[in-house]
Amino acid sequence: MKTKEQYISTKVQTLKPSGIRKFDLAASMEGVISLGVGEPDFVTPWHMREASILSLEQGYTAYTANAGLKELREEISTYLEKRFSVSYRAEDEILVTVGASQALDLAFRAILNEGDEVLIPEPCFVSYDSLVSLAGGVPVHVQTSGDTGFQIDIDRLKEALSEKTKAIVLCSPSNPTGAVLSKAALKQIADLAEEHDLIVIADEIYAELTYDQSFISFASLPKMRERTILISGFSKGFAMTGWRLGYIAADSYFLHAMLKIHQYSVMCAPAMAQFAALEALQNGLAEVEKMRKSYRQRRNYFVESLNEIGLHCHNPGGAFYAFPSIQQTSMSSEQFAEALLLEEKVAVVPGSVFGPSGEGYIRCSYASSLDHLQEAIKRMDKFMKKMSTS
C-alpha cells in the first residue's frame, strides 16, 4: 500500500502555503490591528449588492455563457477602451473569470509547456511562482530594489533571459510594493518582448488605484496588444473581493485557449456576481473615485508617518500597500513581523514571503480606517523605540 504522501501529486507536495495567510490568521487575536489583509475596508456599494439581489429575485440562477454575460463583456470592453485606451471585442476577446486569481491560472496553463520559463520581477504576489509551477513552467525571479522604488531594471531582465523564456509577468501597481511602472520602463519592456517574441501577462488588478499619474495599460503600447494577456477584475478598485469576479482581455487566439480550460474547470463565473459587476461598471465609477481619493489620503498620512518613526518607505504610486524597510533593526522580516504582533499587536506581512528581494521589508496595507492607521503608527513607534534601546 502506498504511503499517504504517494497519493498526492509531487507538484502539490512541493507547494509552500501562503505566507500571507499565516499572518492573516494571527490578526484574529484579540486587540490586534491588522495591516496584513490585502482588501478594501469598504463594503461593496449598496446599489451593486442590490443588483445582485434583484437578479436572484428575477430568477437568474442558471449558467451564463462560458465567457460570461454578454452585457457584462460589452461593458468591460467599453470600460477598457474609455478608461485605458485598449480595445478588445466583447464576443471573443473578453472572458469573465472567478477572480483575477483564476485568470492568472488560466493564462499560465494556456501558454506554458513543461520547462518553459517565466520572468517574474519581485518582490511579487505570492501566487505567481506556484501557478507557474503547477502549469509546468519554471519561475525565474528578477530582483528589483527599494533604492529605485522597485522599478524593473531592464538589464536584469535581459540577464535572466534564456532560450526557454516564454513570458514576463508584470504587476503594476504592484502587490506588495505599490510601485507603478514608469512609461520609460514599460517602453523598455515592450521593446524586449518584441525583440525576443515574449508573451506579457499584465496583472492590472490595481489599475483603478493610482495616485500620482495616469495609469498606462501595457496593452495600449504600440504592438503590445497582440502579445499581452491583460488580467483585471472587480476585487480591489470596486471593493468586491468576496464576489470573486475577474476578467481576461486578450487576442482571440489566446482567449480561445483559456476558454477551453475555463469551460471544463468552472463552467462560468456566478451569475449573481456578474450582475453586480454590470451595475458597478454602469453606475459605480463615481464611488470608485471616492475610494481612490480616500486611499490616497491614507497613503499620504501612513507613508509620511512611517518615515517619521524611522521605517524608511518609498512613496507607493498605487494599490494600497506600503513596503517599508526594517533593515536597520538587524532582524529578519519574519522576526520583525512576529515580534511586532506579539509585543504591540500590529499584524503586518514579512517581505520575505514575496520573494528574496522582499527580505528586509514588511508589507503594510493602508486599506484600513484612518483611526486604525493612527493607532498602528503609535504602536509601531513604541516598538521601534524599544528596538533602538535594546
Question: Which properties best describe this structure?
Answer:
single chain; 390 residues; alpha/beta; Aspartate Aminotransferase, domain 1; Aspartate Aminotransferase, domain 2; seven-stranded mixed β-sheet; three-stranded antiparallel β-sheet; 13 helices; 13% strand
Helix content: 40-55%
The end-to-end distance, rounded to whole angstroms, is 56 Å
CATH C-level name of the largest domain: Alpha Beta
How many strand units? Answer: 12
Principal-axes geometry comes out as globular
CATH-level-4 superfamily name of the largest domain? Type I PLP-dependent aspartate aminotransferase-like (Major domain)
Radius of gyration: 21 Å
- Output the number of helix runs: 13
State the CATH architecture of the largest domain: 3-Layer(aba) Sandwich
Q: Give the mean pLDDT.
A: 94
Fold-level CATH name of the largest domain: Aspartate Aminotransferase, domain 2
> Strand count, sense and closure of the main sheet?
7 strands, mixed
Q: Name the strands of the widest sheet in spatial order.
A: 2-8-7-6-5-3-4
Structural class, judged by helices and strands?
A: alpha/beta
Domains counted in the coordinates: how many?
A: 2
Q: In percent terms, what proportion of residues is strand?
A: 5-15%
The H/E string reads HHEHHEHEHEHEHEEEHHHEHEEEH
Q: Uncertain runs with pLDDT below 50, 5 residues or more? A: none
